[in-house]
């Protein structure tokens, strides 16, 4: 009598990336010194999104060319709430990227 044993291969966990939408952020105030100096630019940010969707940490990956605008963009991340990433349906912290565009309104 020979017995047959079914072997079930372990499945890979299902990972879903955090959903980053700039519209989920309140717009930070444009720094007054940057307005006076006519500074504009794009800040490329990396951020660690917690399991609750709040930004735990942020860093500049590519500067706008203005330290003031870069700092304001990092501070602005505290105004954001995102849908966190997950593994097998359980929220987990994960890194994501976002660009923040600073432009002065033209009259």
TrEMBL record:
It is found in: Cell inner membrane. Signal peptide: none annotated. Its main location: membrane. The keyword S-adenosyl-L-methionine does not apply. It is a single-pass membrane protein. One of its GO terms (cellular component) is plasma membrane. Keywords: Cell inner membrane, Cell membrane, Membrane, Protein transport, Transmembrane, Transmembrane helix, Transport. Residues 15-107 form the TonB C-terminal domain. Transmembrane segments: none annotated. GO terms for biological process: protein transport; transmembrane transport. Gene3D superfamilies: 3.30.1150.10. Belongs to the TonB family. This is Energy transducer TonB.
